[in-house]
Every structure is written in C-alpha cells, then in structure tokens.
C-alpha cells in the first residue's frame, strides 16, 4: 500500500467531517434562508463526491458508487444557484433556472438507470454531463467575481475569492482530471493534485466556518434594509448620502458605481460602504440604488398625470438599465407586476 493509499481516505474523511460541520451550522442558524438551503444541498453533493471513491466501483458496491457519483455531478449546478442567491442577495430563483438545473440533473439519473438495466454507461451522456459541469462552475465563479465591487458585507466580500478559488476551482479541476484521465485516479500525479485540491477547498471552507455564525452573512434578503443596530441619530455621512440620492437623484446616472458615489461625496470608499450597510441597512450597492429607483417608479405609477407614460420609459428614467432587472426588482419589492401596481394605485384615487 502506497503513501497515497493512506493519505487519500484521511483527507476525504477529514473533508467530509468539515463539510458536515458546515451543514450543521447552516441548518442551525440559517435554514430559513434560500441561499443557506442551497449551500446545504451543495455540501451534500460534495460529500457524495468525497465518498464515491471509497465505494470502489465493482462487485456489490457498484450501485452505491453509481448513486454517489451521480449526486456528485450536481455540485457545480448547485454552486451556480448558491452564487446567484448568496452573492446577488436574491430571495428566490426563477423557474427557468430551476428547470435548467433539473434538466441537467436528469442526465446522471438516466445514466444510473442505464447502468442498472444494462451494466453499461453512455459516453454521450457522460460528455454532456462534463460540459454542463464546466459551464455551471464557470458561471458560478463569474457571478462571485463580477459582483465583488457592489458587495457591502465586508466578511462576504473577502470570502468571494475564497469561494471562487475553493469550490469553483475544485469543481473545474476534478471535472478536467476525470474527463482526460477517463475517471482513472490511479495516476499518481492526477491523484496527488486532486487530493491537494480537496485539501485546499476544505481549508478555505473551514476558515470561513465561524464567519457563517454571523447573522449578516446569511440574513434573509427581505430583512436586508433593517440594520441590526441603527444609530440613534444618522451620521453626517448618512445624511449626505440621502441628500445625494433622494434629492439629487444620483442613482439615475448610467453605470453609477460606489466608487463614483464616494468620489462625489469626497469620502473614502470604505466609509461609504459602512454607512450604506451599517446605517442604511443594505447588503449590496445595487439593492441600495434600486430602493431609490423603485421609490421614484412607485410615485410615477401612482400619478394620474403619468397614466399614459409607458412603464419602460418610467423604469429607464429612474435609472434601470433594462426591463428584465426592473421587473425582477419590482416583483421582489411589491409581489406584483408594475402594471398591476399601477392599476391598483390609480383605482384607489378614483
């Protein structure tokens, strides 16, 4: 028995325990939050990957191995959903995204049925699954990377790159190795690098474990605009922020960023972030901007003088870049479409 044969189960066993600990913490403290529930499912599929090799494929352990392997390929799809929910502070994911993940999940299920029925697997399904894994992993990493400037939660901002490097990188590496080594982990270099990837991913997740105890990291998005400890009196910076946003309507500017806002106020960016998050209660800069934009939109939709103004025009004038993001933000805030809101508001005035 070689050194790798001894180290392999130790690393996989240790990683499994730590991912179970992460699941326990998320369930105990944040199970009501959609992002935390998806993270729990994602961790479960990571554990399935870690255990799959222990269930050596062959003989009586073939079917348990196939099940664990089928679950493990769902890691990148769940990582993508997790990134969208957590990093973008979404309260829900649209049915189209769930349908895409469900369609992807059918592929390993078909493979399991095929193996159970015939003892063979389909190379075509195997290729589709690997391509899908790459696509979901890269998409999740891009979401984590692209929104870092808008994130107002300092602990989460610093953890973004860790998530990108740990889980996203781990998924891509494992997919690459298994695709080009035909799932043969006996190759010493491939196996060593895979164990290193598991170790690094587990270490980064472990470092973040105690951060997940913080309520703000997985706060329910609905409560995002209600800071835990609002100062008795707003600071001078918070008052200036409200003037610039509510009275000067800075949010209307195309491509308006937190850097542009800080420059306009003549303040360091970190102070502006703290004021928006700590005093005004917003978790990301886009939500902060949209709160003012939606106030303007609601007032316009309820104004009889603007009854004939197209909703798209109102949305664009308020600073929304396109109809899709506007509709999502409005439905999240009001639970109805802008047209339904306008009808209801104008009826109340009659």
Helix content: over 70%
Q: What is the ordering of alpha helices and beta strands?
A: HHHHHHHHHHHHHHH
Can you tell me the CATH architecture of the largest domain?
Up-down Bundle
Determine the CATH topology of the largest domain: Rhopdopsin 7-helix transmembrane proteins
- In this structure, how is the largest beta sheet organized? none
> What's the name of the CATH homologous superfamily of the largest domain?
Rhodopsin 7-helix transmembrane proteins
From the alpha carbons, calculate the radius of gyration and give it in angstroms: 24 Å
Shape: elongated
Mean pLDDT: 81
Percent of residues in β-strands: under 5%
Unreliable spans: none
Number of strands: 0
Amino-to-carboxy terminus distance: 84 Å
Q: Count up the helices.
A: 15
Written overview of the protein:
By secondary structure, the protein is mainly alpha-helical. It folds into 2 domains: 3-213, Rhodopsin 7-helix transmembrane proteins (Rhopdopsin 7-helix transmembrane proteins, Up-down Bundle); 225-349, Arc Repressor Mutant, subunit A (Orthogonal Bundle). Helices cover 71% and strands 0% of the residues. It has helices at residues 3-30, 34-52, 62-72, 75-87, 95-118, 123-146, 154-180, 188-209, 236-247, 258-265, 269-279, 285-301, 311-317, 323-334, 338-349. Helix 4 packs parallel to helix 6, helix 5 (95-118) runs antiparallel to helix 6 and helix 7 (154-180) packs antiparallel against helix 8 (188-209). The termini are far apart. 34% of the residues are buried.
